[in-house]
Amino acid sequence: MKDSLYGLTLDRLAAWLEERGQKKSRASAVWEALYRRRVTSYEQMTEARPECVALLEDQYVIHTMTEHTRQESADGTVKYLFKLRDGNLIETVLMRHKFGLSVCVTTQVGCNIGCSFCASGLLAKSRDLSAGEIVEQIMNVQHDLDRAGQGERVTHIVVMGIGEPFDNYDNMADFIRIVKDPKGLAIGPRHITVSTSGLAGKIREFADSDLQVNLAVSLHAPNNELRTRIMKINRAIPIEKLMESIDYYLERTNRRLTIEYILLKDVNDRREHALELAELIGEKRRPLVNVNLIPYNPVDEHSQYQRSEQESIRAFYDALKKQGVSCSVRLEHGTDIDAACGQLRSKQIRASRDEAKAASV
Ligand code: SF4
Fold first, then answer.
1. Where do the domains of the chain lie, and which CATH numbers do they carry?
2. Where do the annotations place S-adenosyl-L-methionine binding (predicted)?
3. CA-nearest residue, atom 5 of ligand 1
4. pLDDT tens digits for 169-220?
């Protein structure tokens, strides 16, 4: 099967052409066609030399997925379900904010982290996505915007869809290099956020890397007992180890870090949890940390969890603020569609299984 052309960084594309007797500089024309003019076929790559196009066409494809389903919300959120060449389905979400358009991308088919509240984690990882498949999600959304003709552009990227991006580190890193390349999509590094469930070793690697984009860490609980209940990864990487890697990241990068905290009714949303969280963050980290409180979107499969009351969310927020912790409550998008991450995908997969079962009886 041919690889995705979107998976090549500009340097790698130039080297690939050079190895085949082409001038390295010809890569720029291909890059220009792909990311500036955003062509969708080789025939449209008129600025590139025909011999370059022929070589590329021989080994790479531009499209590796098709749109399977989409849901559009009244607030402009669009949830796409893309079908990969191997039949797997992945989710990508476009969200509209006052500050621009952001896209949330998926990095793996399924996820092995198994957070107990998550619709995506119900389906184990079957494979990693290639860098090209992650870039193509952005390009599909951008092509959709191009077709609408309003001149809208994807301005922000959040790597928070299905999967643990640090469990697919190399492809995630190439994806970031490609989308932030100033000669291509040129998405600003400060407009890109990668979210991890807390793989401590990879947080250090990320801190030492050239990527220089924002990091969000899913904490979801202020102590080990509670965190292990909510996220089984905490057994392998307890909070102390995670905080050490966060300290390393803050020292190395001096960049702000987001702590994600999903609020689950009567589980982790009490005032004492907020105070414990403020203490865990501590004075030293406080200037560089922002806590993002996420009201839970209930999913059928996790009936043990409910959404926190509005007063509890307010009280949690106030308690953190009072302790001098910078925090915000995540604005919700697409509440009239399958809003929780992975919900649309798991629904579709269940529906197909039910159909297959019904057909076999
Ligand atoms: S929340 Fe993220 S890391 Fe946890 S199971 Fe879901 S997709 Fe995986």
1. 3-61 (1.10.150.530), 64-207 (3.20.20.70), 219-330 (3.20.20.70)
2. 163-164, 195, 218-220, 297
3. 121
4. 999 999 999 999 999 999 999 999 999 999 999 999 999 999 999 999 999 9
